[in-house]
Write a structure and sequence with these properties.
The complex is a heterodimer of chains A (339) and B (441). With 339 residues, chain A is of the alpha/beta class. Chain A has twelve helices and twelve strands. The longest helix of chain B is centred in the middle third of the chain and has 37 residues. The chains are: A alpha/beta (339), B alpha+beta (441).
């Protein structure tokens, strides 16, 4: 796959310093307790912290990280489900938060999301035809008379038999449900798909089918993907470019082949060391030591330093900046400064 | 995979269609019915409940008696044990004997009597003759029966307001009133000897008591203190109880669910405010709040319903909120937001229908509670007015006679209440199992 990053296409989606904080505010009882001398604080989770990224048209960007690292939140910010608390998001150069109602709606429709759980992402009380057809009908994408044919067409695009459209989600297998979710997203003619662990809940054989479907749809509709996963194998197979996320920050970004060949950041190295390979003989797995720290109380400096085998004093004091270390490669590690 | 043979014109490279689990389209409702039918007890409860509802709804057409029609029941039928036959309508009747002319018989009957409070029994004729005898003047009363069996119906007779100082051939005078009581045999040939020198108009009242019963009307469950058929009263009582329960439940559900959904969807201060009111409401004992409200508002069906809504909406609000909190975090709501659907559409088309199951479960249980609470309030005498007998009121009415051995006035309405509430709860329990997402197959 030739990397689209090398061409001069304008970024379809760009994030500039995007952050997302979740704050659990104090309630009245807690405020009262504070007045009486206890020391309760608001709980703040910085799920996404100052993320800069750009996705060019036609690209497939993989976003990898452990669970709880904020990759899903980032995906939801891009898809417009969550509003970023800081920074700005540009769609084809326009700041999304400064658009009028209509334009904002159109941008929203252009960026669609495929969810992890194919069961809970479909309204259990709707028939397939309604699930796929609701948004096109409401937004007037197709006329009333053409809706039926349009739904059939969408179902065929994702490899579902159109005769099943009177059924309910629970009557389908996991893979079929995921296809319905994809058809629902396609039905509003999107340009950008955020796939949040879109195949993680599926059997391996079904995973391959759905991944192939994604790739085919990319060619048919000229789609751009942000592919969120914790499965490095899937990301390697699919992506042009990969970003590694750790505790709300992007720690490394590189073209797929380069990243898998020569991982730069110690966290990436640790992750890649753990990918099970078929050709591996008896080998001992050395898990990344320690648990992922609580995002409620992240470590100072580089978030990875408590688990990093190369940690220095500087790593504890100062957060490393995501810097270019080679053309098209960025990494956030103080070790690069020493070289 | 027969269907996969269809050409995928728009998607030539389509990966094979996965096999569908079953060929039949099963709507969620159909699945719900099948799941519900799995419990025989619940189906039995549902059948009983439907029967009770039919009885209540069609009470005016199927009840043997209209308990609101005061002319249709009589005090003499009061407190009859179950299985008693109804006494005939014209059991007692009173006539005022008109002016009597010596030697001339006057037939006393419904048409001729001056003041007839009830028509005569069919086949019985009574006539009066004023006679001059050696002893003085006397009135002879003669009873004729046609057919002869009709005479057997006569049980007793009473004469009232006779001229002062008469002598009767038989009969017993009341201790101090001018009232004579005679048995049926005595009455058949009765002479009233008038005091000497009595010359005035003769005018008195005759009351006959017959024992005829109406074989077509049996009080299967006895009668209450007013002589009302308990069975009919219970049917009408069920009608009142159920309608009060269902109406208060429905409105409490509407109010509670809107507030609960609002709290869950908007969160933050709105959520806190609504839920603190709910906490406050639930902190008070239900019966106490209802008692206070009714003490202020007074009696009446509307007031009872209002009081029940006030004490019940909080349960629905809490349930709806918790269901909505769970549903709101599901990805299909995010997907709907992603599809730029309006907030109103998301709440009402996506969120609300999926929050309904637990609310329906609470609803059935709460309707049973409302009926029980209404019965409690009526039993305490502050619920429904006497003209709207609910089951609770019927129980309350019979409570005084319980120790007198007249158990049926209280016990049967109590059993009816019990059956109603148990059947509703059986249905509600099964609904909870069927609609519980954790037990969902």
């Amino acid at each position: 796959m030739t990397s689209a990053a090398e061409t001069e296409a304008p970024p379809i989606v760009a994030l500039e310093g995007v952050g997302k904080r979740f704050v659990k505010r104090l309630d009245v009882a807690m405020k009262l307790a504070n007045m009486l001398g206890s020391d309760l604080r608001e709980e703040v989770v910085q799920a996404v912290d100052d993320v800069h990224m750009a996705v060019r048209e036609g690209e497939v960007v993989g976003l990898v990280g452990e669970s709880g690292c904020g990759k899903s939140t980032l995906g939801r910010v891009v898809a417009g489900v969550h509003r970023a608390t800081s920074g700005r998001m540009l769609y084809r150069g326009d700041d999304v938060s400064h658009l009028g109602d209509r334009a904002a709606r159109d941008v929203r429709l252009k960026i669609q999301m495929i969810f992890q759980d194919p069961m809970s992402s479909l309204n259990p009380r709707f028939r397939v035809a309604d699930i796929i057809g609701e948004a096109p009908k409401v937004h007037g994408i197709v006329g009333r008379g053409e809706l039926d044919g349009y739904v059939d067409e969408m179902m065929r695009h994702v490899g579902l038999d159109a005769s099943y459209k009177r059924r309910y989600p629970h009557q389908f297998s996991g893979g079929q449900r995921q296809r319905i979710g994809i058809a629902r997203a396609l039905a509003v003619k999107p340009e950008f798909l955020v796939c949040d662990e879109a195949v993680a809940a599926l059997d391996v054989s079904i995973q391959a089918q759905v991944l192939n479907l994604f790739m085919r749809l990319r060619e048919d509709f000229g789609l751009t993907y942000l592919f969120i996963s914790h499965d490095l194998g899937v990301v390697e197979h699919l992506s042009d470019r990969v970003m590694i996320m750790y505790l709300g920050r992007i720690v490394e970004e590189a073209p797929t082949e380069a990243l898998f060949a020569t991982p730069n950041h110690p966290y990436t190295q640790a992750l890649l060391a753990e990918v099970p390979r078929l050709e591996a003989k008896r080998r001992a797995y050395t898990p990344v030591k320690g648990e992922i720290p609580s995002p409620l109380n992240p470590p100072s400096g580089c978030h990875f330093h408590p688990r990093c085998p190369h940690a220095l004093q500087r790593c504890r004091d100062e957060a490393p900046v995501l810097r270019e270390i080679a053309p098209g490669r960025r990494s956030a590690c103080h070790l690069n400064d020493r070289a | 995979m027969t269907t996969a043979a269809e050409p995928h014109s728009a998607a030539p490279a389509a990966s094979p269609v996965e096999a569908a689990p079953e060929p039949r389209t099963v709507s969620p409702f159909r699945r719900f019915v099948d799941d519900f039918a799995e419990s025989k007890v619940a189906v039995f409860g549902l059948v009983v409940l439907v029967g009770i509802i039919v009885l209540a709804v069609f009470a005016p057409w199927i009840a043997p008696q209209d308990p609101y029609d005061l002319t249709d029941f009589h005090e003499r039928d009061a407190r009859l044990p179950p299985g008693s036959e109804r006494l005939f309508d014209a059991q007692t009747f009173t006539v005022t004997v008109p002016d009597l002319v010596p030697g001339q018989a006057v037939a006393i009957d419904a048409e001729e009597g001056v003041s007839v409070s009830n028509p005569f029994v069919d086949g019985l004729t009574v006539s009066a003759v004023l006679e001059e005898t050696s002893d003085g003047r006397q009135i002879r009363l003669e009873v004729a029966a046609d057919p002869a069996e009709a005479l057997g119906l006569l049980e007793a007779a009473q004469l009232e307001d006779l001229p002062r100082g008469p002598t009767l051939t038989s009969g017993e005078k009341h201790a101090f009133r001018n009232l004579w009581t005679l048995t049926a045999e005595d009455f058949q040939d009765l002479a009233i000897v008038l005091p000497e020198g009595f010359d005035d108009e003769i005018d008195f009242r005759l009351r006959l008591t017959t024992s005829e019963t109406d074989p077509g009307f049996t009080y299967w469950l006895g009668t209450d203190a007013q002589g009302r058929d308990m069975l009919s009263a219970m049917m009408y009582g069920l009608r009142t109880s159920l309608s009060v329960g269902v109406m208060s439940g429905f409105f409490a559900l509407l109010i509670g669910m809107s507030l609960g959904l609002t709290a869950a969807y908007f969160g933050g201060r709105v959520d806190s405010l609504i839920m603190r009111i709910v906490d406050l409401q639930l902190g008070f004992p239900t019966i106490l709040v209802a008692l206070m409200l009714l003490a202020i508002l007074g009696r009446g069906v509307d007031k009872v319903i209002f009081a029940l809504i006030i004490v019940q909406w909080a349960y629905y609000a809490r349930t709806a909120r918790s269901a909505a909190l769970v549903e709101r975090r599901k990805e299909y709501i995010e997907a709907a937001a992603c599809l730029a659907l309006s907030t109103r559409r998301i709440i009402f088309r996506h969120l609300l229908p999926n929050c309904l199951p637990p609310v329906i479960v609470v609803g059935t249980v709460q309707v049973a509670n409302a009926i029980a609470l209404e019965a409690t309030l009526s039993f305490l005498g502050i619920g429904l007015p006497l003209t709207k007998p609910s089951l609770g009121l019927l129980i309350s009415n019979g409570f005084d006679y319980l120790l007198a051995g007249k158990y049926w006035i209280s016990v049967y309405p109590g059993v009816a209440l019990l059956i109603t509430i148990v059947s509703i709860n059986l249905v509600g329990d099964q609904l909870r199992d069927v609609l519980n997402p954790r037990l969902q197959r």
